[in-house]
Write a structure and sequence with these properties.
- The protein is of the alpha/beta class and about 325 residues long.
- The protein folds into two domains: about 1-205, Spore Coat Polysaccharide Biosynthesis Protein SpsA, Chain A (Alpha-Beta Complex); about 215-310, no CATH class.
- The protein has eleven helices and nine strands.
- The protein has helices spanning about 1-5, 20-30, 50-55, 70-80, 100-110, 130-140, 160-165, 175-185, 210-230, 240-260, 270-310, and strands at about 10-15, 35-40, 60, 90-95, 95-100, 115-125, 145-150, 155-160, 190-200.
- Strands 1, 2, 3, 4, 5, 6, 7, 8 and 9 form a nine-stranded mixed β-sheet that branches.
- α2 links the parallel β1 and β2 (about 35-40).
- α9 packs across α11 and α10 packs across α11.
- The longest helix is centred in the last third of the chain and has 40 residues, at about 270-310.
- It is globular and about 70 Å long.
- It starts with a helix and ends in an 11-residue tail after the last helix.
- About 40% of the residues are buried.
């Protein structure tokens, strides 16, 4: 069977912290599909490490004395595989489960496309009906099919090229997958999204505050990526970062300044926001357009927080939303 054939070629790296039953479901979905399961735990207090070990995963406790990044956790898993390197490595977050047919489809694609280093598929939200925020996540995961510039947290990768470039950049607080793909493309490798079910994710975002904090996490990722890796020869997060600044910072400040210095009617310029919602609604639906526009303020708060901490010489950090 295809599953058995894949189990000798693929190892899995799972990262998580306090995922509880979701982590158990994640590891169970990998059993029989991969050769080894490496679980990297980031100071869980809910017994996640013990539960993972009981299910047969090799558990690595991430050293939390150093600043935490997801990249550090993923690299810890990669290093654990170095003694018996696999052909492919499946990266997956601990709040996701792997779809049964994914590895067969993904490994087959990499076999047929020898310059492809990374392949991802459709990540779905487990309970999209639970809240509008979960539905927004499900829509967010539905990215275009074909060759692309980067992947998300869940992806099947060729071990050798990823290891050859040193894995993920451990000093990135977010966006480490996009930066990894940037370097792989620079080496001549390609990145793909195929039409196949890959993982099921459990965001569990039920309150506005959770959504806001999650949206704010995107700001530092775009700000750091654009400020460190964007060049005139190779764009990286440029458009996203500029949109955050334009809609979340520049426009409201300009309108406020005009209203204070010239005339209160300048506040009518704020109608640009409902106009933007109306413009995006045909392609995103009203909820998607509304929260995409509102989210620019959350993203701006995260980006400005990152820039402020960087200016003050402090280590950047991401807000938690779970």
């Amino acid at each position: 069977m295809q599953k058995a054939a894949n189990s000798t070629r693929v190892d899995a790296v799972v990262i998580g912290r306090n995922e509880g039953e979701r982590l158990k479901a994640c590891i169970q979905s990998l059993q029989g599909q991969v050769r080894r399961i490496i679980y990297v735990d980031s100071a869980s207090t809910d017994g996640s490490a013990e539960a993972a070990a009981a299910l047969g995963a090799e558990v690595i406790a991430l050293d939390m004395e150093a600043p935490f990044t997801a990249a550090r956790a993923r690299n810890a898993g990669l290093k654990a595989l170095a003694t018996q390197p696999p052909e492919f490595v499946q990266f997956i977050d601990g709040d996701c489960t792997l779809c049964e047919d994914w590895l067969g489809r993904a490994a087959g694609f990499l076999d047929d496309n020898l310059r492809a280093a990374v392949v991802s598929g459709r990540r779905r939200e487990r309970f999209p009906e639970a809240s509008v925020y979960n539905r927004l996540c499900d829509t967010e995961w539905d990215t275009p099919i074909g060759e692309t510039r980067s992947c998300g947290a869940d992806a099947l990768m060729r071990y050798n090229p990823v290891a050859a470039i040193g894995g993920f950049r451990e000093d990135l607080i977010a966006g480490e997958e996009q930066e990894l793909c940037l370097r792989l493309r620079g080496q001549g490798w390609t990145i793909w999204r195929i039409d196949a079910e890959m993982t099921v994710h459990d965001a569990a975002i039920l309150r506005f505050g959770q959504w806001w904090r999650r949206a704010a996490r995107a700001g530092p990722a775009y700000a750091e990526g654009a400020s460190r890796f964007d060049t005139r020869h190779q764009a990286h997060n440029r458009r996203e970062y500029h949109r955050i600044l334009a809609w979340g910072v520049v426009l409201p400040l300009v309108v406020l300044g005009l209203a204070l210095l010239l005339h209160p009617l300048a506040l009518l310029l704020l109608l640009a926001y409902p106009v933007q919602v109306a413009r995006l609604t045909p392609q995103m639906g009203f909820a998607g357009a509304f929260f995409d526009t509102l989210g620019k303020f959350a993203e701006a708060s995260g980006a400005l927080g990152y820039l402020l901490r960087r200016w003050r010489g402090k280590a950047p950090k991401l807000p938690e939303y779970k």
